[in-house]
Amino acid sequence: MLSLATDLEALTRFGRALADPIRCRILLALRERPAHPADLAERLEISRTRLSNHLACLRDCGLVVAVPVGRRVRYELADERLGHALDDLRTAVVAVATDPTCADADDKDCC
């Protein structure tokens, strides 16, 4: 059984990744299929530099991995269960959301 500290650390990493819309888009795209950075940048319509920074964050969080393919690198979710977790979280949040806006958008602790 994992310790509470380990559980909290894992959830914090996942939360940090989901805190940014671009990282959410990357995770959702990789949920569909692995991708090379250039293809992913084009698909998400963001610069390669910006994508690279977000991929580094997701790698540091342990959510994505870089897989060498010849001279290129392909990114994919670190574990297929992350894709299921994203689906479950997305459907659960949509199911309970009555107002997707934060009550106090200036509150840094809010949504």
TrEMBL record:
<dbReference type="InterPro" id="IPR011991">
    <property type="entry name" value="ArsR-like_HTH"/>
</dbReference>
<feature type="domain" description="HTH arsR-type">
    <location>
        <begin position="4"/>
        <end position="100"/>
    </location>
</feature>
<dbReference type="Pfam" id="PF01022">
    <property type="entry name" value="HTH_5"/>
</dbReference>
<dbReference type="InterPro" id="IPR001845">
    <property type="entry name" value="HTH_ArsR_DNA-bd_dom"/>
</dbReference>
<protein>
    <submittedName>
        <fullName>ArsR/SmtB family transcription factor</fullName>
    </submittedName>
</protein>
<dbReference type="InterPro" id="IPR052543">
    <property type="entry name" value="HTH_Metal-responsive_Reg"/>
</dbReference>
<dbReference type="InterPro" id="IPR036390">
    <property type="entry name" value="WH_DNA-bd_sf"/>
</dbReference>
<dbReference type="InterPro" id="IPR036388">
    <property type="entry name" value="WH-like_DNA-bd_sf"/>
</dbReference>
